[in-house]
Amino acid sequence: MRYTIALATAAVIASAFSAQASSLGRPCTTAPQSQWLSVEALKAKAEAQGYKVQKAKIAKACGEIYAIDPNNARTELFVDPTSGEIVAKE
Prior knowledge:
- By secondary structure, the chain is of the alpha+beta class.
- It has a single domain, classed as Nuclear Transport Factor 2, Chain: A.
- It contains two helices and four strands.
- The chain has helices at 2-23, 39-48; strands at 52-59, 62-68, 74-79, 86-89.
- A four-stranded antiparallel beta sheet has the order 1-2-3-4, sandwiched between helices.
- A hairpin with a 6-residue loop joins strand 3 (74-79) and strand 4 (86-89).
C-alpha cells in the first residue's frame, strides 16, 4: 500500500513539473512573430554559451532547444525568441 501511494505521488509530481516546463505556463514573449529571431540564430546563441544543440524549434511563442550542456548532461532550454535569452531549463 505504501509503495503504491509513493509511486502515485511521484507520478503526480513528475507530470506537474513536465507540464510546467513544456509550456512554462505562459509564452516566452508577447512580441509579434516579425520580431523573432530565426531558429538558426537561436541555436547559434545557445552554442555560443557552450551548449551542443541537437534539435531546436519555436512553439507557442517560445524557443525550445534540446542540447547537451557544458557538463555533458542533456537539457532542454526555453528561450525568448526575440533575444535568445534562456528563460528556463529542464
